[in-house]
Amino acid sequence: PLWEINANCRMVLELEGTPIGNEMKAIQQKWFSSFEEFIDHKDEIRYYDVGDGAALAEYLICEEYVFGEIPHELQKHIDYHSYGSELEMDDRYLFTTSGVFRYQ
């Protein structure tokens, strides 16, 4: 029906210019079987403005405390590149030129 097409067009316009909007095709291909499913779950997609796995690892560890709070003097001993490589292989993450997306 026409109202569904109009609703989908409004959603695309809302996303236009955002990181999720810029990577809409890649996101949909990775996690969703249809545009409608993507739209239904778009609010569950988390965006990280980082360039690679190591930067994401450092952000998750130091800012989001994924392993709990780690003393500053120990943070310099963490292998962010190794953990970042694991994140890059994790299906919950999508690495793009716009940044990294996570969907659970």
From TrEMBL:
Q: Which InterPro entries match?
A: ArdA, ArdA_dom3
- Give the source species: Dorea longicatena
Q: What is this protein called?
A: Antirestriction protein ArdA
